[in-house]
Amino acid sequence: MAGVSQSAVSRCFTPGASIAKETRDKVLQVAAALDYRPNVYARNLITGRTRIVGVVLAHLDNLFYPRFLQLLTERLQSMGMQVLLFVADGNRQVDLMAQLLNYRVDGIVLAATTLHSDLAKACNHAGIPVVLFNRVPSHALDRAFHSVQTDQSAGMAELTRLLIKRGHSRIAFLSGHLESSTNQARELGCRATLEKAGLPLFAFGVGNYDEVQAASVVMGWFHDGNRLRQLADCPDAIVAADDRMAMAAMDMLRHKLGLRVPDQVSVVGFDDVPQASWPAYDLTTYAQPLPQMIEAVVRLLSAQLQARDANQDPSTEGQSVVLKGSLCLRGSVRARTGHDALPTRTRKGA
Asked: At what angle are helices 290-309 and 64-77 packed, to 10 degrees?
């Protein structure tokens, strides 16, 4: 009815394809009259491409990753691709990853999780590009995979230097998962900066990126079970491995222990999730450059897919992209040295 070839119709419904505007308008007008919709599944059988990217997340309750998922999905959709989300709980990871391969995804993005070695072999054999997001390769097979991350260590070092410049000397580190490469890099940045300044790490606790566990650790630092400790015996600043734990620490300090943030205890986090800028927290943190990270993920995936479509051998050595973030200075860090005396008790919740 449109008087054009089948390939011209196909280009009309392919994002980014080259076709004259006049031809496209004519085809779309006829398609509307016929109530025509392209059959994506049939196209996939012909092209051998599903245009689906599998995204594996382990911690959707982490405030940073829903934003990552939204931006990645929007970016891929603009390219005519779709996201298929898998949530890994740690116990069924092998089954989950095998199921992901059964969907014949064009690529895989792993965020807050790692790839089992057997499935790493399967991805390499099938030529499926894999990008590790906010993770570094954990074993030899991962070297064929790309990775995109913020310079975690440098970011945490910048936060720690800020606290030292503001007069803090009793700095505590609130850790995430000990086995996480992200946490390890952030902890290293804090410890190395303290060591360079001639300061010991005053206290250490594991919050596992969980607000309840983080609050419990902070309670133990400031309370002996019967009463509030003398502030001279407690941290005067808390470095949290992510914003979620930092905000939990602030809630505990203010609403359970009756302490003033930042006058008596400063708190910093990492990620710059949207809630960090809320007036209730006004959290000083280190922002991961999420839009740039998304672009790097898409670029690495696209390059691998283009090489595969051209029957070129994909790179056997993955690229590691490390991006610089930025310090977000807000009101949770004091401007000068505070007082180490016990606080005056105020009404509950103040």
From this structure: 40
